[in-house]
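Ticket #4471: complex job returned nothing on first submit. Input attached below:
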Amino acid sequence: MESKTPSFVRGQMLPPQPPPTRESGVVKWLHENLFSSWLNGILTVVGLIILALIIKSALPWWLNGVWHASSLGECREIIAASAGEGATGACWAVIRERWHQFIFGFYPPALWWRPILAFGLLFVAIGPVLYAGQKRVLTYMIGGAFLGLLITLWLASAPAMVFVGLVVLLGGLAALAQTRPGALLWFTAAFPALCFLLLWGGSFWTPVMAMAGFAILAVVARLLAGRVGAPVAVGLGIVVAVIWWLYVSGPVAGTIGSVLPLGLEPVKSDQFGGFLLAIVIGVTAISCSLPVGILLALGRQSNMFIVKSLSVGFIEFIRGVPLITLLFTASLLLQYFLPPNTQFDIILRVIILVTFFAAAYLAEVIRGGLAALPRGQYEAADALGLDYWQAQRLIIMPQALKVSIPGIVSTFIGLFKDTTLVAFVGLMDPLKGVTQIVRADINWKGIYWEPYIYVGAIFFLICFGMSRYSMYLERKLKTDHR
Amino acid sequence: MSEAITRKVDRSHMQVSDEVAVQISRMNKWYGTFHVLRDIDMTVRRGERIVICGPSGSGKSTLIRCINRLEEHQSGQIVVDGTELTSDLKNIDKVRSEVGMVFQHFNLFPHLTILENCTLAPIWVRKIPKREAEETAMHFLRKVKIPEQANKYPGQLSGGQQQRVAIARSLCMKPRIMLFDEPTSALDPEMIKEVLDTMIELAEEGMTMLCVTHEMGFAQAVANRVVFMDQGQIVEQNEPKEFFSNPKSERTKLFLSQILGH
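Support reply: We reran it on our side without changes. The output follows.
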């Protein structure tokens, strides 16, 4: 039996039509999201009841908060007097009285302007990295940093010279942002030395000579690159720079310092604390761990046996050990590996170990990004005659890093929160170190929630900011139009 | 098949000179223990247009990938433009900058615009100033008829357009030899023609070309030699007319009946 196929010819192509107008507005939203079925309706109601109970029990505590008191006992009296016997209430007075310890630790109050200035300039320094070439954003960042610094420095009663310097510096940088925004990266490069000088003080020449090590590295690498090839030249440059840092830079800085004594009043590492400490460790470790992580990820994929096994060994060892173990290593063991009598700052040691820790994780995150790239990308780069480092820098890494942005930022956020673990090697992190000191005060004994809420809120703000930036970056770099 | 070629091919500039462009002698390659290429002997003269065909797995892609060392051969000799391919990185880079390659899946760089795709290698490998590289790139983009797409990203283009960009990207390095690795296999039928047209134009200008392709119409219209491979060996080679009308080996006959049979 044969089925009959009806013959059909369309005479006219159908024009596109608008979609049907659906019901809209609040009612539709409620129906779709909260009451789409009986079960969902019941769950919605139960959820609302639970929410109401939580708010009912917690709200008085927030509403009865006391800001002006000199001790927890006084707080309680005020709450009892205003809200009746047995009422609960927050005692924010502790934050009002001790906020500076959460922020600065025991940094001398007369010198608070120095970390404030360093923090403000940090934004100016990371601007060119985060928003490369975007004149408007850069100008806004410089302007914002200027206004913020003006107010906070005035509140911290900084010396008049600082304001003059600030106007000159930021004015110059703002002008540079208009004409050659790329050149702002030089400020970024110089910022670590400036930041070190502001935070720790001491001789002006110490950070300058430390930076000179990088200049020496660059010069040696460039001079030798023609003769022995770029990787070997960079390696030799690093060796020379390390020798410079360990044996030469100190005496040179000392000699120049005795002729030209420039500098700021020194502050010791054990006076650092609170968010000052967390941000110093966090920002330094974040900016150092990314390049180390990239190199480790490449090393792990390398064909060269020794490079590969060293990278794998490093990654697996560091990832296999708790961070606290590494921190103890930093505070105790690292001294043994260094030449005798090297005075190696505890914060610096902690930064190095935290950097390694984050770099090992980053290496694996970036390896995931590398694995996501099709082989054709490597082949196309090879076929065009790009060498290994050119291919990595121009083709592979931009794509692999883009894929790994969420993982990389997660690692960074984790790293920043992990800086609180330095409490275990005796540094005053904001969460345990400072809070313990505050609670040890006879006036504030027994206070519990308020310091943690305060510290938690600041951590949340910073981490949320990083997360939003990563989303911005993903949107900006989205070019595949899938 | 041959319906993709609709225009007359201008043969006035297609001249084969005596100069040797690629010399392959007794070349062998293994993947692990699998013998992919067996005793390959082949001489490509400047100006030749060679089409390499054969069943899948016959080693034809591997052969042309050996010519720019995307694959390493284990014995025998490959000399490209007077430079022998060994593990010496300098020689490899030299050969790669002289030999252009077009891939089945285009392999454009998705994070760069079309123009940046075309200027990247000239700027970084040939060290040509950016302005000049952009002018060259626009010249070749006009040639493959998509100058208006220069500032778009590869993901915004159709397959045929992407493949033409890939050809332009290779040409920007001013190569003396072009390798095509199944350039139309990943394309919709409508787009095959535009890519083949571009390749024909290139042949008309006298470019030395090695094409792995199943487009027998292209082979008949443009090639001066067809090479048939099977099981890692060159089974038969001849000029296209002879090859298609009078194949000598049984394998070739079988292959041709399978792909031309319908």
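Chain A has three domains: 112-186, 202-262, 267-482. Closing as resolved unless it happens again.
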